[in-house]
Amino acid sequence: MVYLQEFEYNIGAKNDPETFLQAIKCNKSNLWYNAMKKEIESMASNGVWDLVELPIGAKTIGCKWVFKTKKDSLGNIERYKARLVAKGFTQKEGIDYTETFSPVSKKDSLRIIMALVAHFDLDLHQMDVKTAFLNGDLEEDVYMKQPEGFSSSNGEHLVCKLKKSIYGLKQASRQWYLKFHGVISSFDFEENIMDQCIYQKVSGSKFCFLILYVDDILLASNDKGLVHEVKQFLSRNFDMKDMGEASYVIGIKIHRDRTRCILGLSQKTYIKKVLERFRMKDCSPSVAPIVKGDRFNLDQCLKNDFEREQMKNIPYAFAVGSLMYAQVYTRPDIAFVVGMLGRYQSNPGMDHWRAAKKVMRYL
């Protein structure tokens, strides 16, 4: 679920390299190489692996480079990022991993905290955990091939014995959550019983909420001093980036007018990417996502080979999923029609597709 949602709000990156060779042969090769070098240095400073001989009977998992152009809320390029990812799909349960479950904060919790921030005029700050998954301690013996382009010059036959969880491992997100939970609990933060990624610290009349979404952290407090204390504590335990007052988190723009106690959430950039992905960028707008007289039923589903051929290359389920992501965070106004469209994902017809496009026109 973590990877699916991260993909959803990062939708639309089409020109990033997909392989190591593409990265070093493109016109931005220096930028991508520096990003890869920075990632390897981060791995070394975190003591992620040791180079060892592969034990007899043990098997290695592969790894690959994943490239991403990071952009701000306005779509401007912030930096070029290279992530070394293990090919966790080759792991065997009971050998390379056991438990994999890891919670993330719920959308409802985020909106409730934002409402409290607006109502009580709380300070709202954001922090980012650099290479978050590398903080998780690995309990199993996992051996990985050396990363492409950065093999040891005097030990190409050696393999990486992982000491820390790495992106792509099935248990990586779980190990990171367990590590973070242990650290933050030692600073008198209590976990919410209904949402495991919401924490609260109370000190006299001062309080602080902490929202964890994988590696993004939001801090909401009625005391600037307490926020500073929490930031210092986190920075001592993890490699953190202080983003200051929160303005853009998990693809959501946060607008605040503290004089009027107003806070707004917007996914404008994400919605633009969705429209571009489905070639709806220059469409004419619709006044409503659904109007009186619009009907959805099983008679509109596919009935013959001609209709199936028509829908063959139409990414209906992907479109509905993209609309759902906007709906659950910032656009409850499309909840009814998206719920209706979601009923026909297994066998959608052209009428359902036209209705999905109408929702995009409305957005």
TrEMBL record:
Known Pfam families for this protein?
RVT_2
List the InterPro entries hit by this protein, alphabetically.
Answer: DNA/RNA_pol_sf, RVT_2
Give start-end of the signal peptide. none
Reverse transcriptase Ty1/copia-type domain segment(s): 46-292
For this entry, the protein name equals Reverse transcriptase Ty1/copia-type domain-containing protein
